[in-house]
């Protein structure tokens, strides 16, 4: 039995918060619910109490205590959208817009990825995620290396790192059929077989769930989309996809089908499944109503939206309509990191400057999105997303650095001032995976050494050196 306390000068439980439409947005109002000189009591992977430190330690004087009472204790952050398939391909293509970037970087990369690349790259990025406070990640591994079963490596990597997550294979058949002589039916059969193999592999990992991945609607034939929806109905799977990311997506969809991608998803049956869609930038009021009516969620990726010049997600309108909106980093190739604290800060800044209104989205809004609303978006809010008795112990302690030294407003300081160097300790399911600012499950130096040659090989084999996007020598 493992039992301990995590102590902070402030505990941000993220429990019992009002709905977005009922929130009062005045300076200081978001400090309601912050516990001062408090602690979280953990036993056997679960939270048993959140209370003042003095009361907890009086009742449990024998327990080990993490934290010296100067730091911030928060629920583990939830990155609701990324692509661990891009783990070894950062720093390229940031001068391109989405469609150009997908053609130049992601498509050739996806053809050469192996299960080893996936497992090692995932473990590498898991270090980056954990050190920025992420304990749960919603991944979509995208590749077209048919027969490789590369996506299964994500399960191996996340399990090694001790992270909670939802895994998906972001399949697309049209780009593959363009580049090969494979028969369309054979490709669909292989895609569905990999989905089943990934679901089965995830089922062996206690901290992992599976969703059916639809890379993009435009990347799938109508036959694969229909077959996938049917498979989801049969197996009871939820869906992870992209929707309304860029204007080109909307116009191309209207040329192909006569309607937008959200409308096409509705007709195809995707909204009948538990659905989370990355981006939701180019949404009409009718699209937002469709999300609200079906309880579907949006994963907002502000850094990727800015780097690819995609646009600004209507976050305030989505939240006012009751749509669960989480925050994601998006893939390591369109960010170009997995630093969740950076994404949380960007989520607030982008809305403020877009609306020219400093209160349109505040620090508590984005922290809510990165915790309990992200959990809701993934259907995991009964387990994680807030520090409450009965939930699993996914906890982050930030302490020791200049970033969190001055805490007049702990919520604002966390959102606007904290960086990964402040993340001192992290627990997932009660197991400590970061201790004293170092990842304990994956050794950082060893993992970097393992991944360098893999990244070089991928750069050469995918032709990214030949096209001038990479200067590695292989
Ligand atoms: Zn994405």
What report would you give on this structure?
- With 474 residues, the protein is of the alpha/beta class.
- The chain has 2 domains: 127 residues, Urease, subunit C, domain 1, CATH 2.30.40.10; 301 residues, TIM Barrel.
- The protein contains 17 helices and 17 strands.
- Strands 1, 2, 3, 4, 5, 14, 15, 16 and 17 form a 9-stranded mixed β-sheet that branches. An 8-stranded parallel β-sheet has the order 6-7-8-9-10-11-12-13.
- Helix 3 packs parallel to helix 4.
- It is globular, with a radius of gyration of 21 Å.
- The structure holds zinc ion (ZN).
- InterPro entries: Amidohydro-rel (IPR006680), Metal-dep_hydrolase_composite (IPR011059), Metal_Hydrolase (IPR032466), MTA/SAH_deaminase (IPR050287).
- This is Amidohydrolase.
- Pfam families: Amidohydro_1 (PF01979).
- It comes from Mycolicibacterium austroafricanum (Mycobacterium austroafricanum).
- Keywords: Hydrolase.
Defining key terms:
474 residues, alpha/beta, Urease, subunit C, domain 1, TIM Barrel, 2 domains, 9-stranded mixed sheet, 8-stranded parallel sheet, 17 strands, binds zinc ion, Metal-dep_hydrolase_composite, Amidohydro-rel, Amidohydrolase, Metal_Hydrolase
Examine the coordinates and then state which fold CATH places here, giving the name of the CATH topology of the largest domain: TIM Barrel
Into how many domains do the coordinates divide?
2
Structural class of the secondary elements? alpha/beta
CATH class of the largest domain: Alpha Beta
Q: What percent of residues are in strands? A: 15-25%
Mean of all residue-level pLDDT scores: 95
The termini sit apart by 48 Å
* Count of alpha/pi helices: 17
- Number of distinct beta strands: 17
Helix share of residues?
25-40%
CATH architecture of the largest domain: Alpha-Beta Barrel
Largest sheet: 9 strands, mixed
CA-based gyration radius: 21 Å
Pfam family, one: Amidohydro_1
Keywords: Hydrolase
Protein name: Amidohydrolase
InterPro entries: Amidohydro-rel (IPR006680), Metal-dep_hydrolase_composite (IPR011059), Metal_Hydrolase (IPR032466), MTA/SAH_deaminase (IPR050287)
């Amino acid at each position: 039995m493992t039992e301990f306390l995590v102590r902070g000068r402030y505990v941000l439980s993220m429990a019992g918060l009002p709905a977005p439409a009922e929130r009062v947005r005045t300076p200081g109002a978001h400090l309601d619910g912050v516990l001062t000189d408090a602690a979280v009591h953990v036993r056997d992977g679960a939270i048993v109490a959140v209370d003042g430190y003095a009361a907890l330690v009086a009742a449990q004087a024998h327990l080990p205590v993490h934290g010296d009472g100067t730091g911030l204790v928060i629920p583990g952050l939830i990155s609701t959208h990324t692509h661990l398939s891009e783990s070894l391909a950062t720093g390229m293509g940031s001068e391109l817009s989405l469609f150009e970037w997908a053609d130049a970087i992601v498509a050739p990369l996806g053809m050469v990825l192996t299960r080893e690349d996936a497992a090692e790259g995932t473990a590498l990025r898991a270090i980056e995620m954990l050190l920025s406070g992420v304990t749960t990640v919603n991944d979509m591994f995208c590749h077209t290396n048919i027969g490789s079963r590369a996506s299964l490596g994500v399960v191996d990597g996340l399990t090694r790192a001790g992270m909670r997550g939802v895994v998906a294979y972001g399949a697309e058949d049209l780009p593959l059929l363009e580049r090969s002589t494979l028969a369309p039916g054979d490709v669909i059969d292989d895609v569905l077989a990999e989905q089943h193999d990934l679901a089965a592999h995830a089922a062996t990992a206690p901290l992992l769930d599976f969703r059916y991945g639809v890379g993009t609607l435009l990347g799938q034939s109508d036959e694969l989309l229909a077959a996938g929806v049917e498979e989801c109905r049969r197996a009871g799977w939820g869906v992870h996809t992209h929707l309304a990311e860029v204007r080109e997506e909307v116009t191309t969809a209207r040329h192909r089908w006569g309607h937008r991608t959200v409308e096409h998803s509705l007709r195809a049956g995707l909204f009948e499944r538990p659905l989370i869609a990355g981006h939701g930038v180019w949404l009409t009021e009718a699209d937002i109503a469709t999300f609200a009516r079906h309880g579907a969620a949006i994963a907002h990726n502000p850094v990727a939206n800015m780097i690819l010049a995609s646009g600004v997600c209507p976050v305030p309108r989505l939240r006012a309509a009751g749509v669960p909106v989480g925050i994601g980093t998006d893939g390591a190739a369109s960010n170009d990191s997995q630093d969740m604290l950076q994404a949380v800060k960007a989520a607030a800044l982008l809305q403020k400057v877009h609306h020219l209104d400093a209160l349109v989205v505040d620090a508590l809004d984005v922290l809510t999105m990165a915790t309990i609303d992200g959990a809701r978006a993934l259907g995991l809010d009964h387990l994680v997303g807030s520090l409450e008795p009965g939930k699993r112990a996914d906890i982050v302690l930030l302490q020791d650095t200049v970033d969190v030294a001055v805490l007049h407003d702990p919520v604002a300081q966390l959102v606007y001032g904290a960086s990964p160097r402040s993340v001192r300790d992290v627990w997932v399911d009660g197991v400590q995976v970061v201790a004293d600012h170092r990842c304990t499950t994956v050794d950082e130096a060893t993992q970097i050494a393992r991944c360098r040659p893999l990244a070089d090989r991928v750069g050469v084999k995918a032709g990214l050196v030949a096209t001038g996007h990479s200067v590695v020598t292989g």
